[in-house]
Write a structure and sequence with these properties.
single chain; alpha+beta; OB fold (Dihydrolipoamide Acetyltransferase, E2P); four-stranded antiparallel sheet; 16 strands
Length: 216
Amino acid sequence: MLNIKELLEDIKSNPYKEIIVRAPHTGTVEFAGIKPGDTVRGCSGTWGEKPGTLLAHLTREKNKKPICAPEKGEIVNVRNELEGSFVEAGEELLTFRHFLTRKEVIELILKKALFLFRAPERAKYYFIPEVDQKLKVSGKRSVKVADGMDMLIVSRMKRETPLAYSGPEGLIYSVYFHRGDNVDEGEPLIGVCPEDQLSAIQDVVARVQSEWEEDE
């Protein structure tokens, strides 16, 4: 069984993730005057329609496009030696540090603590009608799964095939896909919690929600 308390202490000792911003395509890079130590904000708005802090411009064939911060954080490193240079797609431009939010910490812990049933191929996934109805009416933790149980429908190339669950018995605790979205091979579809670990996981989630201090 995963030592959740130890995992939480590890996260507290290093509550960040470093994000590398790369050139999305080829072009000439021009930084927006940012420097290490500067705070940047991520995109905002109901649909993420408000761009984050401007980090740089990339110009290709006289078409100048902005590169904005995807999340809130603090600039760690800027590759100023690339200023005015032509860069290839994927070239590292800068790095910033993002302080983990409560939600991100909880998701990180859950992905370590739960059994993740993953997509066997890139496709669209749907719950079978019986499971879908129960999830909608009673919530995620109302559905108990066991190895071999018919649970999902795989939709690919206009063909739909059933997908049985493979893994330990437990309750569906997290769902990681949205109906109609393509899910890449290997990405988690659901997180399953053994019934005897449910209270322990709920306790640590409550602890994070009450104790974790958000970076203002």
